[in-house]
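Supplementary Text 2. Reproducibility record for the structural model of the 189-residue chain.

All settings were left at their defaults, and a single model was retained for analysis rather than an ensemble. We include the record here because the model underlies the residue-level annotations in Supplementary Table 4.
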Amino acid sequence: MVTPDTVVQCIPPLHGLEQIVGDTNDERGIVSSVLVPMIFPSQAQADEGCRILFIRRSNQVRHHKGQIAFPGGRRDHEDTTILHTALRETVEELGPQARPLRVLGMLPPVATVVTGFIIYPFVGMMPDSMEVQPEPREVDGVLTVPFNFFLAEGRCAPERYHYGSNVIWGATARIINQLVAFMQRGHCA
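Retained model, structure tokens:
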């Protein structure tokens, strides 16, 4: 069973790495960060396993319209770290209750192919009772997917995942593939 402690054992720890970026742009692209929200069930629902929370970006945003993504966004000059960017953007997009109980670690950065972003993903443990309040200008909806779905499908590191009528692709799929690979390599899943 995947627990917060097994995730911490298998993915890279923070160790100050969240402060490695000093500007809103670097040589690889526009600096941004996301939170990979993992919702772990209460003891009474433990057999359900953890779930990953995604947003569907609205058609009003500038980039990645209508795509399934993680909450997050572009770094602001006021953000003290790229972790702060991910946390600030998550609250802006999903409301004040969307604060992780614990940041579990940081995955390697991922670049977008067309839009020129370099994304720093952080994995966070979210409250299972969290009530999100999507910001309608940025978020059309919220989707949760069992992590076991990705563990089963992700052995081949697919370019896209089909979950019901939803397609998870691009940088979001590559971030999921990294998380799955770390969990499998560490024999944590």
